[in-house]
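Record DUF1540 domain-containing protein, 50 aa.
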Amino acid sequence: MSAENVVKCSVNTCNYWKDMKCHAPSIEINSKVMSAKTSAETECTTFKPR
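=>
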């Protein structure tokens, strides 16, 4: 039995969003700055507008 990975998401304008979860086949997060220390310094590059 495999555990389902759950990624919470509140960006309802994303193509992968459904029921407050990300349903993308994979997720890529990148840093906006050299050494990110907060979530504000990162971005989800998996985002695909509806």
